[in-house]
């Protein structure tokens, strides 16, 4: 079993000077940190590379040349037998499951994505699990800033036991 921290849309340092302490605590506890893009600055990538046991990450639409040079558009990894893909954008919510299954389903068990800042957890008819952790730093129109943790393993129904963490409002 692999413990994973799922992040997206950190928009650092535009939306926050640092990640919330609860997120850094999870970085220290987890076996892998998964980031689905919109870092904005390479400083956070550098910090997570230094501190995380393992990092699986992609770039997002707000990430410039420096981040795109270091990160793929789609990141892939296998975690305890579970085939994971990480991408920033999946398009509109309507039709997302169909599009994701067509694009990733045959070779992927879990797809982590970002962009909307809205937590999302669904499974397609073909069994592809779609997860969006929201944003820990920019809640937009959501009631809370969020991130996810997941226990990932081939023996877990749905391949991941997922928890959405709500962060307290910033002062």
Characterise this structure.
- By secondary structure, the chain is α/β, with parallel strands linked by helices.
- It is built from 4 helices and 10 strands; from the N terminus they run E-H-E-H-E-H-E-E-H-E-E-E-E-E.
- The protein has helices spanning 21-29, 42-51, 65-70, 96-104, and strands at 2-7, 32-35, 55-57, 74-79, 82-87, 110-112, 120-123, 129-132, 145-152, 160-167.
- The strands form 2 sheets. A 5-stranded mixed β-sheet has the order 3-2-1-9-10, covered by helices on one side.
- It is globular, with a radius of gyration of 15 Å.
- The N and C termini lie far apart (36 Å).
Spans of at least 5 consecutive residues with low confidence: none
Into how many domains do the coordinates divide?
A: 1
* CATH structural fold name: Purple Acid Phosphatase, chain A, domain 2
Q: Class, according to the CATH hierarchy?
A: Alpha Beta
CATH architecture classification: 4-Layer Sandwich
The CATH superfamily bears the name: Metallo-dependent phosphatases
- Structural category is alpha/beta
In which order are the strands of the major sheet placed? 3-2-1-9-10
Q: Give the beta-strand count.
A: 10
Portion in strands: 25-35%
**What is the residue-mean pLDDT, rounded to a whole number?**
94
Computed Rg: 15 Å
Overall, the morphology is globular
Distance between the termini: 36 Å
Number of helices: 4
Succession of helices and strands: EHEHEHEEHEEEEE
């Amino acid at each position: 079993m692999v413990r994973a921290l799922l992040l997206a849309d950190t928009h650092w340092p535009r939306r926050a000077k640092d990640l919330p302490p609860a997120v850094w605590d999870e970085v220290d506890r987890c076996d892998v940190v998964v980031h689905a893009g919109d870092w904005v600055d390479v400083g956070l990538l550098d910090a997570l590379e230094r501190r995380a046991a393992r990092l699986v990450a992609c770039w997002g639409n707000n990430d410039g040349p420096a981040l795109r040079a270091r990160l793929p558009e789609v990141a892939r990894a296998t975690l305890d037998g579970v085939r994971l893909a990480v991408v920033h954008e999946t398009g509109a919510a309507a039709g997302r499951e169909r599009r994701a299954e067509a694009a990733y389903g045959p070779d992927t068990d879990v797809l982590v994505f970002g962009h909307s800042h809205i937590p999302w957890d669904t499974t397609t008819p073909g069994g592809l699990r779609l997860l969006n952790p929201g944003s820990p730093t920019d809640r937009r129109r959501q009631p809370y800033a969020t991130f996810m943790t997941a226990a990932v393993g081939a023996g877990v129904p749905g391949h991941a036991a997922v928890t959405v963490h709500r962060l307290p409002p910033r002062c």
